Amino acid sequence: MEDKFLVSKSTVVTTDYTNDVLRNAAKILIRDIDAVVSADGDQNEIQLVIDDQAPADEQFKVSLNDASHLIVSSGTARGVMYGALAISRDALKVDDFWFWLDKEPERVPYVTISNLDDIKLPDFRVKYRGWFVNDELLLNEWDYRESTDNVWQMIYETLLRCGGNVIIPGTGQTSQNHQGTAAKMGLILTHHHAEPLGAEMFSRVYPDLDASYFKHPDLFKKLWQDSIDEQKDSDVIWALGFRGQGDRPFWLDDDHEYTLADRAKVINDVIKIQYDMVKKAVPDAVCTINIYGELTALYNAGLLDIPNDVIQIWADNGYGRMVSRRQGNDDPRSDVLSGSDPKLSQGIYYHVAFHDLQASNFLSMLQIAPHEVADELEKVHEAGMDDFVLCNTGNIKPNVLFLRLVEQTWRSDFKVKSNAEILSEYVETYYQTNQEKIAALYQDYFDCILNYGKFADQKAGDEFYTYTLRKIVATWIAQRDKLPEMEWLTGNKKFIGELSMIDQLISDHVEPFEKLVHKIKALIEELPDDDSSRLYNDLWLSVAVHAYPIKALKLTIDSFDAFFADTEDFYANSFLLASEAAQTLNKVLLAWQNNPSKKWVRFYDNDCYTNISLTINVLGTLTNYVRIIGDGPDEDQWEREYLMDKSDAKIMLLSNTHKAYDDREMAIRLQGRFGGNQAK
């Protein structure tokens, strides 16, 4: 019997094209065959089929009927999808993250498929493995091939290539818009912890009513039932719970007074109602509940009544550690893993991207060293809390290194490796040249990150610099005595003390980042085009949104110090420092705009969290504020004092001979006047 199959341009893929999942599997395999093989051969066929006699699980089988017919079969459509992707990966050598890292497969005349028993689903130790594509603001505004639908198709495909089977395809309305297409790829749907059962928000449906369960229980129940009816024929893991109109406690949207026991009673009643509603519609339904945010305190107080067959999902703190997250200024860091219970089914919700308006990573690669992530996820496994692992991906592209690592932790053969081993393996997979130098640059990235607290995981992501900078400018101009909502970092210090503390935190990290900028830009110039573009997009852009904003933050604090200094030319000095801060931040925008890959040039356009462009505008406001005070309301005194010849400056036949220079032009001219240095 033949044990080899030759893939050529003459190979066709057949399936039941009325089945959405099989049709998508065939579409992917046809695309990849077309991308890889270049020569014609004998007519043959790859058949993707559901085998009604096989177990209804995710396993698949690749077999040969004869030399002309390769069969990929499974008891489920998802299993067939995994089989098609396994051929793509193992035989055609298409990398799981090819789309996000622009790693095109090698083009060859033919591909021979043999050793069919080796093409199989990995042995996973995690049953439910998935992604929550959250804070997906960059993805939503990036039109790959003129359509965001194409972007989401690639997200689903990548998750399936990694062996994932569960997805929350976005947040709020985005998730509802994409659930159908995710299901057509074979993925199990589940729900945001702030959107139990995937139901619409009460205030969106009933905007004129108070979002009060106390007042309108029947309307809430109708929303839940409508959502169940809409999804009951799909493959769904049902998230139970009750929260407010967004990612917040329900009692914040209700004018009814609730004691702690009252809050627990409402949530327990809701969980029981939702559980019964789901089980009535889908008797074998899998349900979860997120012990997250405000539910943690109720759980720890022993006030929650959760059915035993509901998977309890616990979250990390957004910084890679399995402790409770900081909320506002409250950071109890309650240990999560100590709550493991072998009698229960438990899982985790783990972030490689996070958004807390404080110090998290939105634009950049996670700032926690990959070994620390691997070690923490291994502890989760040892605690028996990985029946369900959902990873918050953010916008995916900045975090391929970590998404790939998380995918590896799903497998039974996973072993924790050192940082050097993880980075070397990653670099050897995706770069063809200068691998040691490139791996060293990745390590430098993690070494440059600043710790803002006493714990090892308290490392600053890209949001730290801009959120802090904007608050400094607002506090300075408004002449307030304290930064708003910064007690989590600065405690009870007043503004001057806060600035001093922040300055001490960041000062030792500005120069290391500047050195890394020079090293990585120099290597990018030396590398072949493919490696250069990949390093630019996968590492350099993460470095840029740390290196330039941290320097801008330092310059802003220096500008404040200069403004109040008892020295000559102090206002001009402050003005130049603020202007330099804005121009430093502008280098991030230039890095995005000058991307060597046209595919990714517009990817960061909708940066509305870290918001580099807004921060530049805020610095523009500060620059003009300083100038009006120092240069006068007509903005012409500095020209006479610093730029005009002394003989002309003292003659006042005309008050001025041209319009006042704008702030940018004035900064350029003053820098020229002072030889590129600030005024002394």
UniProtKB/TrEMBL annotation:
It comes from the Bacteria. PANTHER family: GYLCOSYL HYDROLASE 115 C-TERMINAL DOMAIN-CONTAINING PROTEIN, PTHR37842. This is Glycosyl hydrolase family 115.
